[in-house]
Amino acid sequence: MRDLRRGGRGLHPRPKPRRAPAPSLWKDNLDVMAPTSEDIDLVSLRAHYPILSRRNYLNSCSLGALSDRAEAYLDEFRERWHVMGASAWYEHWWGRLALLRERIEGLHGAPAGTMALLPSTSAALSGVIDALPTATASAAKSQGAPLRNRVVMSELDFPTLAYQWATRPELEVVILESPDGVGMDPQQYADAVDERTLFLATSHVFYATGFVQDLQALADVARKSGAWSLIDGYHGPGQVPVDVASAGLDFYTSGPLKWLCGGPGLSYLYARQELIPELRPRATSWFATRNQFDFDLNGFEYHEDARRFEMGTPALPTVHTALGGQELLEEVGLDRVHARCAALRERLVEGCRASGLQLRIAEDPERRSSIVMVAMDDPKAAVVELDRAGIVVDHRPGFVRVSPHVYNSADEVDQVVAELTRIRGDAAAKPR
Question: What is the model's pTM?
Answer without folding.
Answer: 0.88
